[in-house]
Structures are given as structure tokens and as C-alpha cells.
Write a structure and sequence with these properties.
single chain, alpha/beta, TIM Barrel, 8-stranded parallel beta barrel, two-stranded antiparallel sheet, about 35% helix
């Protein structure tokens, strides 16, 4: 389903694929450290891997929140990671102009959940010919994602992924409805579960999003058990010092243990 992504490996293992990395490019050192560690793990467990980092964060709660080190500087770091390790890269885009700009540096363009209905953005992403990962809006049903995907399809681009990242449950919490996975799989596109953002606790009075990282393993296990094609997971060597979304990230030191467990679950599922 994702065979034509440049540099993608381990596709013959019948495993789930992984999109993982830090929330945002903080520095070249930080990005390379995380990428190298995740490559070691995914090569060991034969998991197809796409490295993730946003080149900028445009949808922050507070005006003084960190948004990035500079668009081109961050994109050049992502391209450097891509070329150094020969791995595909996914990054968020927020505007039609971002689609064209980022497509010169990365392999997969990601549409943030809050922007999953933005027609101009979806069309611009589709027109690049790159893979487009559309995150399901927290306010959308699983069935409605077929319409978001169709906007990309109308450009002639069939390289589409869909990601569930939870649904609003009141003002300050999200819930994962695992029925969404088979529903979105009816589109015939691969379906990913974001096991870190789905544990966010948004709209806190502090203006800083909270989270429940202790539940990441639970959501991940459930996602694989019900047949998700891929897992999305943000990770950082020190989530408490991460410049974005640290409250719901997985500490990098726990990544191998989690992936090892998910691989075992997938192997069991494959026997059915």
C-alpha cells in the first residue's frame, strides 16, 4: 500500500509501518539523535519506517509558543536526515504554499487534523504528487474522511493515508473509537492510529496542552489488535524539555520496548 515511497524498507515483512519522530525540528542534533535511534529499532524489528518532524508548528495554543527554527533551515535539516540515513520523511503543512515548499524536501505531506477539511490545502498537497497523510479532524466522523480523501484523489493523486488521532470528548479530552479503523479502511487507503496525539488533553486553562503518556502503550496495542496498517508516534529523549507536545510524547528510551510488543501482536494477528 505504500510501496512507492522512496527509501521505504521492510515492506515484505507483513508488519505495520511506523511514522515517528519529534513533534517539531528543534535542532539538527536533536533530530539526528532521534532518527538514528528509531532506525536502529525499526531495522531490528523489520518495521517499515518514515521519520516524522514538523518543519514548523502553526497551530499552537498561545502566541508565544515555539513554532520552529525557521522554515527553510528546518526543511534542510530534514533533507539532510533523509540523505544521510536513506529514509523517507513526513512533515506537517498548513498552507497551500507550504505544500509546494515542503514537497522539495520530504516524501510525505501531512495534513493536521484541524485542517482536514481545508479544500485548497488538500488540493495543493495532492498536486505535488507526494503521499498525503490526512489526519482525521477531532470533530469529524470516520465516514466523513472519505470526502477529505476524495479532494486529493480529484487531483489524480492516489497516494493517500488516513490517520485517526482521537475524537473530542467534551472540552478537555479525546477518545479513540476503534470502529474508525475498519470504517476508514473501506476507502482502500492505509489507516494509521496516532497513539500520542490521541492522548492529548487540549484546551487547558494554562494554554499548554496536557496528555496521558502512560496510556500510549494501551492505545498502541489496541490499534494493532484491531488491524491498523500503521502507527504514528511522537517521541523525544526528554519530553519534559520538548518544545512542543511534550506532555503526550513517548520518552525515546521506551520506544524499543513498545515496538517489540506491537510487532508480537501484529505477528499474532497475521495468523488469523
Amino acid at each position: 500500500m505504500i510501496k512507492n515511497i522512496p527509501y521505504i524498507k521492510n515492506l515484505d515483512e507483513n508488519n505495520f509501518f511506523l511514522l515517528s519522530g519529534p513533534c517539531v525540528v528543534e535542532s539538527e542534533k536533536n533530530v539526528f539523535e532521534i532518527a538514528e535511534h528509531l532506525i536502529m529499532i525499526t531495522d531490528k524489528y523489520k518495521v517499515p519506517f518514515i521519520f516524522k518532524a514538523s518543519f514548523k508548528k502553526a497551530n499552537r495554543s498561545k502566541i508565544d509558543s515555539f513554532t520552529g527554527i525557521g522554515d527553510i533551515q528546518a526543511l534542510k535539516i530534514l533533507r539532510k536526515v533523509r540523505e544521510a540515513f536513506k529514509i523517507p520523511i513526513v512533515t506537517d503543512i498548513h498552507t497551500a504554499e507550504d505544500a509546494e515548499k515542503a514537497s522539495e524536501y520530504v516524501d510525505v505531506l501531512q495534513i493536521p487534523a484541524f485542517l482536514s477539511r481545508q479544500t485548497d490545502l488538500l488540493i495543493a498537497a495532492g498536486n505535488t504528487g507526494k503521499y498525503v497523510n490526512i489526519k482525521k479532524g477531532q470533530f469529524l466522523s470516520a465516514e466523513s474522511m472519505a470526502f477529505a480523501a476524495n479532494k486529493v484523489l480529484e487531483t489524480g493523486n492516489e497516494n493517500i493515508m488516513l490517520t485517526d488521532r482521537g475524537t473530542m470528548f467534551g472540552y478537555n479530552d479525546l477518545i479513540v473509537d476503534f470502529r474508525s479503523i475498519p470504517i476508514m479502511q473501506k476507502t482502500a487507503f492505509p489507516v494509521i492510529v496516532d497513539i500520542t496525539h490521541s492522548l492529548q488533553q487540549p484546551n487547558q486553562t494554562s494554554g499548554v496542552t496536557g496528555g496521558q503518556p502512560e496510556m500510549i502503550e494501551t492505545i498502541g496495542k489496541a490499534a494493532i489488535a484491531v488491524g491498523a496498517n500503521g502507527i504514528f508516534m511522537e517521541t523525544h529523549p526528554n519530553p519534559a524539555e520538548a518544545k512542543s507536545d511534550g506532555a503526550n510524547m513517548l520518552n525515546l528510551k521506551y520506544a524499543e520496548n513498545l515496538i517489540a510488543k506491537l510487532v508480537k501482536i501484529r505477528a499474532a494477528i497475521n495468523t488469523f
